[in-house]
Amino acid sequence: MKAKQLVLVLFCFLVCSVYSQSVDTHVLINESNFNSDTIKNRLERLNKKTPIELYFTPSVEKTIKRYLKTRVNFYKKNIEKINFYLPLFEEQLQNRKIPLEIKYLPIIESRLDPSAVSKVGATGLWQFMFYTALENGLTMNSYVDERMDPLKSTIAATLYLEKLYNIHNDWNLVLASYNAGPRTISRAKRKSGGYANYWNMRPFLPNETANYIPSFIATMYILEYAEEHGITLYKSKIPFLETEKIIVKEKIAFEHISSFFEYSTDSIIKLNPSYIHNIIPGTSANELRLPSNLVDRFIQQEKEFYAFAKTEFDKMEKPLPDLYSIDSKLVYKVKYGEFLGKIARNFGVKVSDIKRWNNLKNDNIKENQKLIIFPKRIPKS
Predict the structure, then answer these.
(1) Which fold has domain 326-373?
(2) Which pLDDT does position 239 carry in this prediction?
């Protein structure tokens, strides 16, 4: 009998262990956070401290409760990113007197990935489209996409948000317009019969935009009450602002910085994601952001570092030897009795060059054979 009881106890223990492992970790969240009255009261307190009108609507409540189940773990896993970027956003928003709570917008837009690219080409933390980025002062070329620069894209975003506020004079409509564009909001106004309040216009907006404000409010709500949701936000540290930028005077690659200063390439990319090929061109006004202590070393060893970078670039395989160009290519027909040495002397090139240009495995050539040559000089006859 005792043996049977022992088996039964062990069986129950195993079942309970398996069940506890399979239970969704979100269940462990404090159930009081899901209470409607709690959510409503917290939202009312938030509404008193922000110019953004926060309404406790069924869609807002539903989104908050859904995010409490599905997003809290994401915020916890990405707390380093959140703590890294939020101080930067706050500073730039404050500079233009934009509500600080809009610092949560890039979490919705890009999940705080400065290299994020959407299906339609929106890029960076703030998900700028190409022409909107140009209109707000960002540069894009073969080497650089400033939509992926955290600081410059944030400055551009605050400029754009300010423009949208001058159009709509309502922060909910600004956020909706940021998502859908000013023309979409204007059309929704007309369709609604002239309403100027987002919640009255909402039925006339595209689904994505109709859900955008509840999504923003839910994100803001959870992170404004981060401690209650088990999320640790730093209040005193400002990691991004502990970095500095310097002007780069010559062409360098991230791998050169990493090798010379013994600093990881991944960390350099994290601070400078706008350089598409991990190369900073040697043109004017190109900036490099590094931790403050590394900036001091860079300045002290600048001359030696540039020499090192040049040496590394010189080691790279060149498509053609110096002084040759694709425009100077000619096709030469071998004459009777000629050999590679004579042809090379006539055109002022090396035998090894002719072999490489023509993929020759040995020195054997024959009459009337055609050879590609990039001459340094053209023989008189």
Answers:
(1) Membrane-bound Lytic Murein Transglycosylase D; Chain A (3.10.350)
(2) 65
